């Protein structure tokens, strides 16, 4: 057992790497928050500070006055939630079949998942645009939701397949021996243990759809139908000069839903995993 223990210097190095990684993630966000509350005088200062000397909400008021942020946020929320619900509903039974019945079909599906993630957005946008145009879905949230479902489905399927394989098949066999039918076994035994995986998959799919920019930029042309990431680009001037204060304020508001969703759901994910461990 002593050989498995991490030595003191190695453990210190791990903690140092973790702190560096957290700083790498946190510092840009903290700078964004600081910029959002700075007045124009401090934004143009040659000696910027982390903490605003004269914090103000003027950037937030200007951001809402200049751009339809609430409508854009509503569009992003509708597109993300609908895409997540449809993708998870389709991916869950497919993942169960792939995990429990391995064969050529399962291998082909896994290969499709890997290959689909290798395609860049630019490569598929032209045929995708033509298909949606023939379906009269250009400049509609329905078309964007359809794209998000198709794009997030392989990732959701890959994640859920791993979670299903982590659920012991012996539990289902024991339920069958006790007289439970297939449907009751899935609902009473498999589903509770799979719930944390479904929630985690839905969370990642939601964040991906909420932050997606390229498809929304190409497919949505009417301002009142555009999503929040697209509307954020409107704070850039014709020559690429950013209205930094309102842009930072709008970007800060755009990051809040993802943070709130993760903060609320992560406790459920942890609790579900612990419950699954006790049951198994």
Q: Major sheet, described briefly?
A: none
Content-based structural category: mainly alpha
Task: Say how many strands there are.
Answer: 0
Rg to the nearest angstrom? 23 Å
SSE succession: HHHHHHHHHHHH
Mean pLDDT: 82
Into which percent range does the helicity of residues fall?
Answer: over 70%
Q: Tally the helices.
A: 12
| Terminal residue distance | 26 Å
Shape: globular
Strand content: under 5%
Low-confidence residue ranges: 271-280
Could you walk me through the main structural features you see in this protein, from its secondary elements to its overall organization?
The chain is 76% helix and 0% strand. It has helices spanning 8-36, 40-43, 58-66, 69-100, 104-116, 121-134, 141-166, 169-177, 182-211, 214-219, 228-232, 244-279. It is built from twelve helices and no strands. With 280 residues, it is mainly alpha-helical. The chain is globular, with a radius of gyration of 23 Å. Mean pLDDT is 82; it is low at 271-280.
